[in-house]
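Molecular record:
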Amino acid sequence: MSINHKQQELIDGLIEDLKEKFPELKLVEVTESPENPNDLWVNVTRVKDEDRLIQFIKFFSSKTTDILMDYGYHISVMPIG
């Protein structure tokens, strides 16, 4: 997997924002999407509380849409576990 400097910067900022708003989350790994190797998945631990999960989905959806619109990189946050 090849992540360029800008992608890494965006991923680091996204993870920092996620940890600030959802401190219970832990980064698991960053991987290529199985559907498209140009897309990246930021795999994090799952939010257990349903209300927090809804907040989490809204938050990362907004952030990743901004990244796509501003920089053209498709980065998804994938809760696992």
